[in-house]
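Researcher: I'm preparing a figure for a lab meeting and need a structural model of a single chain. I don't have an experimental structure, so a prediction will have to do for now. The sequence is pasted below. Please return the structure as tokens so I can convert it later.
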Amino acid sequence: MTLNYPLTFEPILKERIWGGEKLTTVFKKGSKKTGIGESWELSDVDEDISVVSNGSLKGKSLKELIQTYKGQLVGEKVYETFGDSFPILIKFIDAKTPLSIQVHPNNELAKERHNSFGKNEMWYIMEADNDAELIVGFNQEISPKEYLKKLHEGNILEVLNSEKISKGDTFYIPTGRVHAIGAGVLLAEIQQTSDVTYRIYDYKRVDAATGKERELHTDLALDAIDSQLHDSYKTPYSLIENESSKLVYSPYFKTNIIQLNGSVNKDYSNLDSFVIYMCVEGNAKISCGKETYSLNHGQTMLLPATINHVELIADSAKLLEVFL
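Model: Understood. Here is the structure written out token by token.
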């Protein structure tokens, strides 16, 4: 069986203490539950491995596909580097209330402590309430001693950088950067395949299952935090209609945005990688060979590395284009 068509996967829905209803009401993810905070669109995290939802490979797991097709699926160089592990985790996140303030360890710490990749990630804001904010980094130089003092006094918010946000804003969150998604935010998240998070501060919220405040990881986080001050944390970019416009290029993933009006032919014959499309606005169609596939708002699609040519079609849509 050849890899000759774009793959979609069953979303893995995660209930969260801060989750809302938009993933099920706006994106039509199939769940009657409330408080769905995350839809894992493409995952190779243990116990949460994505399963194909379309075509002749329906029912096969992402892990099975990699083990069977290897470089044909992910790209030869990607397979040489990562073997049977898929290197990227793709999510949509709906924050009805603020997430905890957190930090992710780098590759070295994550490997040593958790036998995991680190967690470099990026956010693309799809919807934001008028007063919505993110926390990204610090607003002043701070030493570990000063940081711990603020944390123990309950005043950590005073030294964190808050950003007013709007639709289309983009942020790269390298490992070590303290961050949190605020209330009223719907976003696309692209990250390394890792589920390692150190929770720093959580507004004294109580876990419904245990009746206790959620665990903090103060000691683990201290070694992981990068307290360097930056002039700006938002990622600038230019949007050119019907072209792949650069958003974030990191050692761990590359992401473009395509503002689609009409049709665009994409040639990936010189790219030795899979390609992921995330539809962050409108609805699109992907023409591949003799078949055409729908990609609607809030959906994700994986192009195997064996597919070199597709046509993207939409009256008005925005796609994130992700690859290695």
